[in-house]
Every structure is written in C-alpha cells, then in structure tokens.
Amino acid sequence: MPALNPHISVDCVILGFDSKELKVLLIEREHINGVSPEGHKLKLPGSLIYKNEDLDKSAYRTLFELTGLRDIFLKQFAVFGNPNRLSPQEDLDWLRKTTNNYQIDRVVTIAYYSLIKLTESNRTPKTIWYPVKNLPDLIFDHNQIIKKALEILRNEIRSKPLCFELLPKKFTIRQMHDVYEAILDESFDSRNFRKKLKPLKFLVPLQEKEKGVNHKPAQLYRFDRKLYFKYNKKRNGFIL
Amino acid sequence: MPALNPHISVDCVILGFDSKELKVLLIEREHINGVSPEGHKLKLPGSLIYKNEDLDKSAYRTLFELTGLRDIFLKQFAVFGNPNRLSPQEDLDWLRKTTNNYQIDRVVTIAYYSLIKLTESNRTPKTIWYPVKNLPDLIFDHNQIIKKALEILRNEIRSKPLCFELLPKKFTIRQMHDVYEAILDESFDSRNFRKKLKPLKFLVPLQEKEKGVNHKPAQLYRFDRKLYFKYNKKRNGFIL
DNA sequence: TCAAAAGTGTTCTGCGTACACCCATGG
DNA sequence: CCATGGGTGTACGCAGAACACTTTTGA
Questions:
Q1: DSSP code string of B33-57
Q2: Which residue's CA is nearest to the C1' of nucleotide D16?
Q3: Where are the domains of chain A?
C-alpha cells in the first residue's frame, strides 16, 4: 500500500433517489480491534489521500474501497479546513487508532458530491442509505459537509443535466418530475412541467412503455448526452 | 512566526475593475538572495498556511502581507491538488529556496477569489494589475487557477450582488452597466438595463450627481445591503 | 366499474428585446 | 454650438403560471 498523506483527505457525499426521497450514503465508523466504538457513529465515505495521488483519483478510489461503487460521476464542491474540525476528541481518537502509523494532527478535507440512482444492487451490507432530512449526528463535521452539498446541488440541478444521474436509463416524465420535487422541495404543475420538456430534443422517446403498473402506462425516455451538448452549449437554465 | 504547514497553501485571485477592463492582481516572485530569478515570473498572492490557522484567515493574512489589502471579500472557489502542479522544476526550486526550513514535496492549494474597485490607492509598488485577457505565463498552475476563477465569477455575478464590490460606494448606472459588460464580455442595451434596475429597491438614489464630466451628470446610487437581503431572500436571478 | 396516474390546450400576465429621441453639461 | 453620455417609452413575442378533463391500464 502506498504511503498516506496524513494532512489531506477526501470525503464523498453520495446522494441517491429511491423514487420517493433523497438519501445519502453513510457508512459505519470502522471498528477498532473488532470492537465498535461507542455510539455506532456514522460517517461519509472518505479517507486520507496517498502521497502521490491526484485528488479526484483519491475520491474515486476511496468510494470504491468503502462501498464498491465505481464509474459514477463525482464533483469536487468545497474544502473544509477548520483547524478544529476533527472534534469531538472521541472522534479524533478513533481516527488515530484506525490509521496506526500516522501522526494525525490536522486534516484538510476536499469534499465531493455525486448522484446515483438507488436500486437494490447498491444496497450492499456496508452501506446505509439515510434520508437527508433528519440525519443523525455524524462524525467530525460531516453533517455540515452534507448540508453544503445539498445547497450546491440545489443550485446546480437547475442548470445542469444532473437529474439523469439519479434516474435509470429508461425513465418517465413523472420520474423526472419527482426528482425535481424531491431535491428542490417545491411542487411543479405536471402539465407545465411536460410542456417545458417537450422542446428538449435530447429527451428521446423510446418505442417502449412502462409495464405492470395499474394505471395508464407512461412513455419511456432516454437522455441523449450528445444531443444535449450539441443543442445546449450556451444554454444557461436547463429546466426551471 | 508560527510554524508553516508545508502541505497546504492558499492562493488569491484578486480581480479589479478600472472602469474599463477587468484586471488581476499579480506579484513578482520574490528574489532569492536579492537576485531575481530568471524570467521575472509573476504569480498570484498566496503562501503556505500556518499549522493552526483557519483557511479563510490564512487567505486574508496572506493577501494583507503580500499586498497591503485588507477588509475585502474573499471566497473559496476551488482546490488544486494535482501531484505535479509544482512544475516546472525551476518554479519548484524557487519555492524551496524561499521557504528555507521546510521540505516541500507536494502542496494542495485552496484558491480564493475577490473583487475590488481599482483606484490609485491600491496600486502599491508591490502589486501589478494585469488585464485578464492575454496574461503572461505565470508560475505553477496559476494561469489555470485564474481561468477557473473567471468561469466561476461569470456564473456568480448573475445571481449575487458581486458587482458592488467592483464599484465605488457611490456609483452610476453606467458604471454598473460597464462592469457587467466587462465581466460577461457581452453588450447590454442601456435602456433595457436601466429598466431592469428600476424596481430594485436596494439601489438607493443619492441627493447627489456626478461632477466634472463634460456631459449631463449622472445620478449617483448606493447599494443598500440590508434592503438587498430583505427583499431578495428567495430571489434567484439578480440582474440579467 | 373503480382507482390511479398519463397525457393534452388555452388564457393571461409579465418579462426580455428591439428600437429613437431629447436633455444637461463642459469645453 | 458641439460633443458626450444621461435618461426616457412603446410595441411585440415568448415563456411561465393557472387551471380541468379524457384516456388507459390492472385489480
């Protein structure tokens, strides 16, 4: 294993949508000598970077190691560098014990966020998906990191095609609608919402409809990224 | 002097407006033993942080020490952590020589941007204001940092009251207009521009007009920050 | 036949945009 | 009296917002 850089870490705020609400991926603080520290505190997936590792690479690696997730979009969104962020003392003690050979003093963390669709397949034993409303107390400043991620997401989702990260490849208009409502915590008239989507050429209707629902089955669409970049080079606001 | 943390630095992209174009504050790379290194390379004001120093504090301190500027708004906007960013070798050699007692290996830098009005008073001997178009080659990845700062600024200035940072306390509509044109590199119809500003209650007209100009003197305004926050809590787009 | 969501159109209002002329001042 | 920018108003088109009913399916 390469040497760690004990001054800099990455933390990932992975947000998922289960067709109802927005959830964040948390993991249990690793046990020390097989014993769980008091309180079973939860944390974001994250770790110290390696000495010669690019920050983005480190974020992808960490996420994969801790959750098995890979090939998902990750975006750096903020830095948390308060000299006292490794508190309370109990949390710092835990960190020191789980990184044996390093003298941990102060760690500046680079925070990333990501969006993924939530299916049974990413509910591994290691990962806990927690609704973003009413989170429990997390380790260090992780509550604050999530809060900031949500603020940034709410701004970016209005002008970038982020919602497709939260949806399956084939999706219905209703699903898009629900994503926007869940993230922005605001409700949208479905007729007006559809009207806005109609002219968007990068929403390609498929020769396929929803199945096995006890109501009129909805048209399925896919997102065409190429068309998006072709027609939206200058576009400022995407939806709403 | 407190101990430095040789792993983390801050760099400040200070943008100024001289009523014509946007300029960025650069400083000369410090001399080594009184001898200027070859090429007289320029750099952003920035330095390593102290061991126990908050990142924002460090940015304010650094800026003050290197340029004499204080009490200006500074905002963290990105992190640059490429393991090879301290290149070319010549630049790294220079950095090592000017921070004698520290072993510099890899430095992750936290970048801040700021906006100020450009007057004779901030043109100190130490500072060089360089038009952001056609910058020379700067040290390390500083060209890239400035490019990113401009991208972010161009987005933020549309939805936040940043333009007032670039203007004197008393300003005319024309001056605001020029700021937007300079930053967004786009031209605006002056009648429509004024029309958009009319309803904004936080633009308070003063009992005072421009003086000493050889044309009809313009109304002076001030920006009322309290009114801004009162009326714009939910407002999404500010101008344009 | 019922429940549940899909899908469709019109009207009104407000905002962005295009565009031309007279006004006040200093030189 | 001239040059320079300050300051004003109107008409058009598009886009957002409000709002109700018919359709298709599974149970």
A1: TTBPPGGG-EE-SEEEEETT--HHH
A2: A192
A3: 4-156, 161-231
pLDDT digits (tens, 9 = 90+) for B121-144: 666 777 899 999 989 999 999 999
Q: Can you tell me the distance from the alpha carbon of B126 to that of B43, in angstroms, rounded to the nearest whole number?
A: 12
CA A57 to chain B, closest CA, distance in angstroms equals 10
Contact yes or no for A149/A43 (Cβ under 8 A) = no
Cα A14 to chain centroid distance, Å, stands at 2
Q: Distance (Å) from the C-alpha of residue A31 to the closest C-alpha of chain B?
A: 29
Residue with CA nearest C1' of nucleotide D20: A191
The pLDDT value recorded for residue A137 is 95
Which residues of chain A does B141 touch, with a Cβ-Cβ cutoff of 8 Å?
none
Q: At what angle do helices A173-184 and A142-156 cross, to 10 degrees?
A: 130
Q: Is B8 a residue whose pLDDT tops 60?
A: yes
Distance CA A9, CA A137 (A): 20
Provide the number of CB pairs (under 8 Å) joining chain A to chain B.
48
- Supply the DSSP symbol for B32: B
Q: Does domain B161-231 have CATH number 3.20.20.70?
A: no
pLDDT band of residue B108 (cuts 50, 70, 90) is: very high
How far out from the chain centre does Cα A72 lie? 9
Question: What is the rounded distance in angstroms from the CA atom of residue B197 to the CA atom of residue B205?
Answer: 12
Confidence label for B38 from pLDDT (cuts 50, 70 and 90): low
Nearest nucleotide, C1' to the C-alpha of B215?
A: C25
B4-156: CATH topology is Nucleoside Triphosphate Pyrophosphohydrolase (3.90.79)
Cα–Cα distance, B71 to A170 (Å, whole number) = 52
> Judging by beta carbons within 10 Å of its beta carbon (0-12, 13-18, 19+), is residue A105 exposed, middle or buried?
middle
pLDDT in the model for residue A73: 93
- For B148-200, the DSSP string reads HHHHHHHHHTTTSGGGGGSS-SSB-HHHHHHHHHHHHT----HHHHHHHHTT-
Q: How many CB atoms lie within 10 A of CB A200?
A: 19
pLDDT in tens, A163-180: 999 999 999 999 999 999
Under a CB-based contact definition with an 8 Å cutoff, are residues A36 and A136 in contact? no
Q: Are the beta carbons of A108 and B52 separated by less than 8 Å?
A: no
Count of CA atoms in the C-beta half-sphere (13 A) of A227: 9
pTM as predicted:
0.93
Q: Is the CB of B192 under 7 A from strand C?
A: yes
What does the block give as tokens for B64?
Answer: 């003050």
